[in-house]
TrEMBL record:
Enzyme Commission numbers on file: 1.14.99.56
Classification lineage: Eukaryota, Fungi, Dikarya, Basidiomycota, Agaricomycotina
Entry keyword set: Carbohydrate metabolism, Cellulose degradation, Copper, Disulfide bond, Metal-binding, Monooxygenase, Oxidoreductase, Polysaccharide degradation, Secreted, Signal
The keyword Disulfide bond is annotated on this UniProt entry: yes
Subcellular localization: Secreted
Notes concerning its domains: Has a modular structure: an endo-beta-1,4-glucanase catalytic module at the N-terminus, a linker rich in serines and threonines, and a C-terminal carbohydrate-binding module (CBM).
Domain called Auxiliary Activity family 9 catalytic: residue spans: 20-222
GO annotations of cellular component type: extracellular region
Protein name in the entry: AA9 family lytic polysaccharide monooxygenase
Organism: Agrocybe pediades
Signal peptide: 1-18
GO terms of molecular function: cellulase activity; cellulose binding; metal ion binding; monooxygenase activity
Matching InterPro entries: AA9, AA9_LPMO
Top-rank EC class of the record's enzyme: oxidoreductase
Described purpose of this protein according to its UniProt entry: Lytic polysaccharide monooxygenase (LMPO) that depolymerizes crystalline and amorphous polysaccharides via the oxidation of scissile alpha- or beta-(1-4)-glycosidic bonds, yielding C1 and/or C4 oxidation products. Catalysis by LPMOs requires the reduction of the active-site copper from Cu(II) to Cu(I) by a reducing agent and H(2)O(2) or O(2) as a cosubstrate.
Length: 238
């Protein structure tokens, strides 16, 4: 996947939905294949209700859902690959991986699970392993666009070995001046992590619950914005 230059664009009244899908991963630069080990939603429509179970891993997955579990080690670089459609990259598209007029953060979480292929995702305990918010001039979504849909996070080297779900999420804020308005795009990938023999226990949150309609970063205006607080917990560090 080749990085692409930012395109010039005309901002139309009533900005379109961001519409993006996390549908593949690479580990240390090695592409695992489209949909391999990832629960890919069949629609690129946004989740807007932060109280819904759909905020966990999305809904309406492409069938059959992959049964692959991707082996990784603590310290590995895992790249979430986003594209405009569930099928992945389909050719030149000014809105691939996301419409460049849409702005917002990109975040990543992990949750330990008995089995990475289990269908049940409610009741899990999630910890944030990375976020790209707003630095005053550039959003996580800008990085996503410039990198052709790729955003990379590091698996913490100090977590316990076991099976995990990896939740990568892009949030679009162009309609977030009231609730519901923010648009959430996420999927979950299935990982088996070789961690530390002396692991740390991160503080965790639940989905739904980690975000509320009044949480910082959920209702915001992009106009005249000088700083932005990314929703959810702090990033876990070793």
């Amino acid at each position: 996947m080749q990085p692409k230059a930012l395109l010039s664009f005309v901002v139309l009244a009533g900005s379109a939905a961001a519409k993006t899908v996390f549908s593949a991963i690479s580990v240390n630069g090695v592409d695992q294949g489209h949909g391999v080990g990832v629960r890919v939603p069949s629609s690129n429509n946004a989740i807007t209700d932060v109280t819904s179970n759909n905020i966990i891993c999305n809904t309406g997955f492409v069938q059959p859902v992959s049964t692959a579990v991707i082996p990784v080690k603590g310290g590995d670089k895992i790249t979430a690959q986003f594209h405009h459609y569930s099928a992945g990259y389909l050719g030149p598209d000014p809105s691939d991986p996301v419409d460049p007029t849409n702005k917002g953060p990109v975040l990543a979480y992990l949750a330990a699970v008995p089995s990475a292929t289990q269908s049940t995702v409610t009741g899990l305990k999630w910890f944030k392993i990375g976020e790209i918010g707003y630095n005053g001039s550039q959003w996580g979504s800008d990085i996503l666009f410039i990198n052709g849909g790729n955003v990379t996070f590091t698996i913490p080297p100090c977590i316990a070995s076991g099976q995990y779900l990896f939740r990568a999420e892009a949030i679009a804020l162009q309609a977030a001046t009231s609730y519901p308005g923010a648009q959430f795009y996420m999927s979950c990938a299935q990982l088996s992590i070789e961690g530390s023999p002396s692991p740390k226990s991160p503080s965790t949150v639940s989905f739904p619950g980690a975000y509320t309609p009044s949480s910082p970063g959920i209702v915001t205006s992009l106009f005249g914005l000088s700083s932005y607080t990314t929703p959810g917990p702090s990033v876990f560090t070793c």
